[in-house]
Amino acid sequence: MKNLIYQVWCGTLTEEAKVSSKLMKQYADRIGAEYLLHTNPNIASKRVNSDGPYWEWLNPTIDNSFLEYDNVLVLDLDIFPVEVLEENIFEQDFEDVGACTEPFQGKQRSTITVGGHINKENDEKWAKVIKDTWNVTLPRDDDGHLKVYNAGVVIFSNEGMRKARDWMPFQKYINLMKSRGLQRFYTVDQNYFHAMMFVNDIDFVEMNNGWNSQIHYIRGPLVDTNSNINDERDDDTKFVHVQMSGHKWNEKHLYEITNLPKSEWTFEYNRGKSK
């Protein structure tokens, strides 16, 4: 099997992105995969009128050069493998596309608004557009919240990439969502990907969350008195998705965040501080 781990970045690489790339290249070598860090590719960007860099991770769905691979794993550059990970993600049981959920998001969005407009009300408004347009009801979690599928770790088979060429064009989706009064988060890549998984003939697999264990700040009433961090790492964690904004993490910080319990971190991690 010919497998590729693909990471993409637009602009100047941050220290965090450099560390992720280095570690993922080492992981690719261990599992016998090829690795590509694609900087400033300007492929998907040509198909949208704005926010082009957000769409570049979807290049395997439109660029035929990726079809030489049996499988392509697309990773954000804030994803880090646990130390000396040997388990081969390409051995997951999937047919077309695989991705992980963000288990905490439904609960958080039901209590607060993130980024000015990301909340339960707008999630439901977005889901109604999907229902009205394609007559598809999107999946929900056990608490009735719409599931959120994170685009930080997505795996495509060759067949999945071929099927994706029939998805709604990026700009057409953007225009549709804007015409229904939805704001930027709902008009760009992650929600597009989420929708396309369910409105097309795609064999989609919800992967084990150990492949995308989130660690991020909590906002609003869900904040625990002892911690403002939601840490989803557990014994099954393989990739850690570090979404603790407001810091300039170095390699030592990122090693500790990925591999050690919070009680063993040697740095200040309150929002806005790192040293």
How would you portray this structure in words?
Helix content is 30%, strand content 19%. The protein contains nine helices and ten strands. It has helices spanning 15-31, 52-55, 105-109, 120-134, 158-164, 170-179, 184-187, 189-199, 251-259; strands spanning 3-9, 34-39, 71-75, 79-81, 97-101, 149-157, 204-206, 213-217, 229-231, 239-243. A six-stranded mixed β-sheet has the order 2-1-3-6-5-7, sandwiched between helices. A four-stranded mixed β-sheet has the order 4-10-8-9. The protein is globular and about 50 Å long.
Short descriptors:
Spore Coat Polysaccharide Biosynthesis Protein SpsA, Chain A, alpha/beta, four-stranded mixed β-sheet, 19% strand, six-stranded mixed β-sheet, 275 residues, globular
Cα-based radius of gyration, to the nearest Å = 18 Å
Q: How many structurally independent domains?
A: 1
Tally of extended strands? 10
Q: Approximately how much beta-strand content do the residues carry?
A: 15-25%
Mean pLDDT: 94
Major sheet: arrangement of strands: 2-1-3-6-5-7
Shape: globular
SS field, number of helical segments: 9
Query: What is the assigned CATH homologous superfamily?
Result: Spore Coat Polysaccharide Biosynthesis Protein SpsA, Chain A
